Records
---
Amino acid sequence: MSEAINVSEIFGEDVFNDTVMKERLPKQVYKELRRVIDEGAELRLVVADVVANAMKDWAIEKGATHYTHWFQPLTGVTAEKHDSFISAPNDSGRVLMEFSGKELIKGEPDASSFPSGGLRATFEARGYTAWDCTSPAFVKRDAAGVTLCIPTAFCSYTGESLDKKTPLLKSMEALNTQALRILRLFGNTTSKRVTPSVGPEQEYFLVDREKYLKRKDLIFTGRTLFGAMPPKGQELDDHYFGSIRERIGAYMKDLNKELWKLGVSAKTQHNEVAPAQHELAPIYAQANIAVDHNQLTMEIMKRVAGRHGMVCLLHEKPFAGVNGSGKHNNWSITTDDGINMLDPGKTPHENKQFLLVLTAIMKAVDTHADLLRESAANPGNDHRLGANEAPPAIISMFFGDQLGDVLRQLVSTGDATSSIKAGQLKTGVSTLPDFNKDATDRNRTSPFAFTGNKFEFRMVGSSDSVASPNIVLNTIVAEAFCEIADELEKAEDFELAVHDIIKKLATEHQRIVFNGNGYSDEWVEEAERRGLPNIKTMVDAIPALTTDKAIRLFEKFHVFTKAELESRAEVQYEAYAKALNIEAKAMIDIASKQIIPAVIKATTQLSTSINAVKTACEDADISVQSEMLKETSALLVKTKDALKVLKASVAESENKAEGKERATYFKDVVKADMQKLRMPVDELEMLVDKDLWPMPSYGDLIFEV
Ligand code: ADP
Ligand code: MG
């Protein structure tokens, strides 16, 4: 038996959380900090000094020697620069451990090497990090020792945000302001703050580290660039929710323990559809904390895998032919006094506030489908979306039977007078209880599904930060709320105005609702008839960031300036071109140095054996060997030709202007040439002696973890 974990004892033990602050801060200081956290006031330096000192003492007791401003640049991963607490040695050569309020609130990493999309020339490298005190500090333990991590926002000398946290916090502010207006209009005078709640479900693969190290493609790009399908894939559905194997179980246990210590409420774990694929879901939290926790989760997933002799793959499509990984972004709007604005209640047709919120979200999603799509775009996700394993690249909303019916009533008669009841599920077995059914079944194929009291945005890629989708969601819904509140605040007859707005929005935006099979070809055609955008690739999605519509939206709610949006588009184009360039170069490297030599060896062996057989027995039938030699040699020629083409197209990319032009070239030309190289190689893998093949097969990787 493995050692038992006392969850309540370890949960949050590495977090400078509310309990610790209450214990360690003078009452007055605690109160002031709490006010800053809860109400968003400014933190005074004298208070910061006291907090910093308490934080340092706490961290040092935990063994910390360093601190870092932990931030989220546009690379999508977290960044940190560690400083030790030591002061300059005094006359007797001794050092003190110091950490001031100033160091807590503000940091100044050299920012020149982070992508900024032209916002900041490298000679103006100044960038600042600023403490996000709404996300608690924590200590991280790794080979570098123990480090106090302070979640921070990152912006340039001139104030532009260079990260994902700053716009996220701004979008939360916008949603708070506009949602409160709606609540007040409905007579709510008690809620003080509204925040988006987010629960990201994280999918991942685990592979054996020894095998991983033999796959240069996994090492350089996070996904396999070659690989023939094994005899068995995921067709038996025997992995999904299957019993968890010992090695994986030990990993999950260790992972949960690490996450719980960091205050991440890891809750659900199970095997996913593809062999070697798994999922972890936390309990939802306030959006910015959920984003920080998801970043931490990804980092810890990788680290713990190493300890278990495995590697955690977060890429969206590590293996062709079996499902890739995504992240379901569960999202709702919650008040500080516990009201979920997305809770329909038992009779949604009577719940006018809910219907207004729902139709506002319809309007937001329909109007800004292109932005939502963009927020889930990354090079890996291009392999998943629309490939019958993930939602199509078309944004639509799923409401289910109950709300779908309410909506139909609204559109057809202008009023909704009934709600379909949930009903009981009779199990038909006397010893099993009957239970209440949900009023709505699930639809796994919808990119944006209502699931009881939240929306689930299912397009996000597994390796991506969930900051971007939530920035978009918060802002587009804030915009819809704002327009509605503008109208309602002026209305003479409030009830009537609410009624009219709900009807109008439901009618105008009904095209965004689709309850059928999102994976079907009919839907692609139907969506086109409805005029819904079908944006198939990341490169095609990026222009959504800089349309007039997007600029108006984000500038109005002070989330992004035009310059910031343009910079983000640039960063995205660059990220795409770079990712594909690395993939293409890795393919060239592997084909030249590993595959072609191995195939030459195989053909040489074949010819030697043909000669040997002939010498031993002149009239032996060598047709099989000859046939194989012919086939293998023909594929070798195809491989060499395709390699030459790919090399040339990669070289040609240098002549394309950086940004959109180069990204488009990689998408249209290089990607196709990569596929052309892969095809003969995958066929060769099926012909060549396994002992000669230079890397572990798909079967070795996903069935023998
Ligand atoms: P499902 O099985 O429908 O996907 P789960 O209960 O497993 O639902 O929840 C999936 C994720 O959604 C979890 O991270 C959960 O904490 C989160 N979640 C549940 N309710 C809400 C809510 N009201 N707002 C945001 N996230 C939520
Ligand atoms: Mg789910």
Note: The two ends are 21 Å apart (CA to CA).
---
Amino acid sequence: MVVFVGAGPGAEDLITVRGQRLLKEADIIVYAGSLVNPALLEVRKDSCDVYNSACMTLEEVLEVLIQGARTGKNVVRLHTGDPCLYGAVKEQMDALAKEGIPYEACPGVSSFCGAASALGAEYTLPGVSQSVVITRMAGRTPVPEQESIRGFAAHKATMVIFLSTGMLPQLQEELLAGGYEKDTPAAIVYKATWPDEKVCRCTVETLARTAEREGITRTALIVAGNVLDGRYERSELYNPAFSTGFRKATDGGRDHE
Ligand code: SAH
């Protein structure tokens, strides 16, 4: 069995309980060494074989996963954040399926959630934005034409942009071209939840300048949107005048038999 495990955004105690148990039981761990905190591996058995996929091709990774699973070993493929975002897991899953090897996935805390905690932000604020766009700039991996930053920016929803820290002049231009105001609040969150985390608040217009000033070129998320502004309407969920499935209006939250 191969399990694709989300390692979380960085801090070694931000993996799930299940993910850590799988690491403890693993005979083989293949981890994404470019972004996974190696401290996570400390719980492994002495006999566990560890591979760093940063130095391997897909074929080499598959060889380790397939041979391990065929010889009855517990194999963990450890990906940063949650494996479902920019994890290149589907191609591994499909290759395993083709070989008849069973696999599962164990979710993790994505870095976009780590960034929200670093910012003390809620991405969905009443009267401001109720949607989050997770996207990236086209790089060596292309992005479909209909998913341009400019197109998404026109919605003025909250945007969290992955894998784009090296392209901030173009990113800010696209965000502005799409319709964000120049002074729309933005932030660069470098290594969210790691000990050397850095949070730089700025505006859409000053993203590139801010990253340059702070020397940030990678391992960062860009967040843009008025949810970073601090102005919003109170939630209906906890409004005394609003009934929910758990609470009648004006009840004050007291528990009744
Ligand atoms: N599956 C991962 C994303 C992998 S893509 C997840 O769910 O988070 C790699 C990109 O994620 C990086 O280029 C960076 O944009 C972002 N990233 C990963 N970890 C990060 C962290 N701790 N802080 C900020 N950005 C991070």
Note: DSSP finds seven helices and ten strands in the chain.
